[in-house]
Design goal:
215 residues, Rossmann fold, 7-stranded mixed sheet, 7 helices, 7 strands, 38% helix
Amino acid sequence: MDEFSYAHRDTSYAGGLNKPNIPEELQRIREEAFASEIPVAADDTLCFLMAQAAAVRPESILELGTAVGTTSIAMAFACPQARITTVERDRAFYEAALVNFGKCGISGRVTAVCGDAGEVIERLEDPFDLIFMDCAKVQYIKYLPRLKQLLRNGGVLIADDVLLYGWASGEAEVPKKRKMLARHIREYIDAVTSDPELFTCIIKAGDGVALSVKR
């Protein structure tokens, strides 16, 4: 789990207009997570993720950073045809996610893995139509080459929290203890926006989302 949480910041760039169309059970899970300061996606990030997933219509989704399963459930709701592989290194989060998958009736469509994302992706073989990365931010740049290999041509890679309070964009001064984190995220942004194999845009949803499409 990251050292700090993105769960409770008001990061809406649409004046609160983005409200995810999700089942009541999932909303209850999200509200409990927010109340417990568990890092789950804000409304505008979840809306963006679900809209992209619905547009791509993926058959296979890879998620790095399950937390308690809210984004997996949301993507499963948006894409009834999709199977999801989701990876979480925190045992307590992993076990909570399994319970939540059962509550929302998607356990049969989700393969949940408890382990280090970097190690797990090296073992995966099947290509994915959509990859959502919301794990340790300092690892994004390290994971990128392998994730490109796992992504189908025409597939979409979404990386969450890439603007980091304005640190990565230079809009805000970076605290001394966060300089390495900001540098690694900046390296990731530079890599995906200059990669000839990717079309990328950076979007102000939540703490920033990088959307990359593999050519």
